[in-house]
Write a structure and sequence with these properties.
Blueprint lengths: L4 H19 L6 E15 L8 E2 L2 E9 L4 E23 L2 E26 L2 E24 L2 E4 L3 E19 L4 E13 L7 E16 L1
């Protein structure tokens, strides 16, 4: 089932309307968190191969409460990977040309939306529906080597933004009054086209610490 932006907006508005009457009865709480992010990417209907597992990443949240069980969460994250491709071709009898292509990708996400919270004792569980944008930056560096002489070719860089939908959830375990440990898992869909048929399907695993700034 495809989740459209219209469905996402309606869900967010309904969550805020249900929580609004209780907002004046509760003191707002502000929390910030940060930690490690592991990314697994599967690409749909794209000629370029997806990188698969991306172990280099970070994530950070800012969360404010509207009521006891409803919060607004904002998330920023970054993931980074690189790939090297080489080839060798004969260009004359006894002479080979060796080519090298270095590709570097930086992926940054900026999403926000409603978060629903439940608790069992001091432990808090949450589920959230976030949406926003992803900024992807790519850098391609190519070179060719002939008879031991390396000649760099022109570098090519590109930056683009895409819509992202990111539902997920997690758990927060308190360590002290203002410090806790957080673990989460979510699914992020990056849309490459308006018909939502091409894009990245990502599973994101995160772990970090949570600090209560305002209670």
């Amino acid at each position: 089932m495809t989740i459209s932006m219209r469905h996402l907006v309606c869900f967010s508005i309904l969550s805020l309307m249900c929580a609004w009457p209780a907002a004046a009865q509760e003191q707002p709480r502000l929390q910030v968190s940060g930690g490690y992010l592991f990314l697994n990417i599967q690409r749909t209907q794209q000629p370029e191969p997806a990188p698969g597992q991306v172990p280099r990443g970070w994530t950070a949240d800012v969360v404010t409460s509207i009521s006891r069980h409803v919060e607004i969460a904002g998330n920023v994250s970054g993931s980074y990977w690189s790939e090297v491709q080489t080839f060798s071709e004969p260009i004359a009898p006894g002479v080979n040309a060796t080519g090298r292509l270095d590709a570097r990708v930086r992926l940054h996400g900026f999403v926000a939306g409603p978060r629903l919270v439940a608790g069992r004792g001091p432990v808090r569980f949450f589920g959230q529906m976030l949406a926003g944008a992803v900024r992807a930056s790519t850098l391609l560096q190519a070179s060719v080597t002939v008879n031991g002489q390396t000649q760099p070719l022109d570098d090519e860089s590109n930056t683009f933004y895409r819509v992202a939908i990111q539902p997920g959830g997690g758990v927060i375990v308190p360590i002290t009054k203002r410090l806790g440990a957080q673990a989460g898992v979510d699914y992020r869909r990056i849309l490459f086209d308006k018909n939502e048929s091409e894009g990245d399907n990502e599973i994101r695993l995160s772990a970090g610490v949570v600090v209560t700034v305002l209670r």
